[in-house]
Amino acid sequence: MTENLWTLVNTAFEKYPGNTIWIRRLSRGRRESFTYAQAQAAAFALAEQLKGLGVRAGDHVGILSENGPEWGAAAFAT
Fold this sequence. Notes:
Blueprint: H1 5-15, E1 20-25, E2 31-35, H2 36-52, H3 69-77
Antiparallel strand pairs: 1-2
Helix pairs in contact: 1-2, 2-3
């Protein structure tokens, strides 16, 4: 069985919606957690925004971001 990255990620979105996918370190030792469901929602929302801007399958999209949840969502959206 051949799987690509999107298939693996989408399976995880569906299988583990309440599990943590990312943790962001904040100031003073605080942390902010993001679930698979939140990551999926962010990725799908960004994908819809990109479609609205005219981005289509096969187009090249650059991601300029710090290493964090936003980068992950952008990577999943594209």
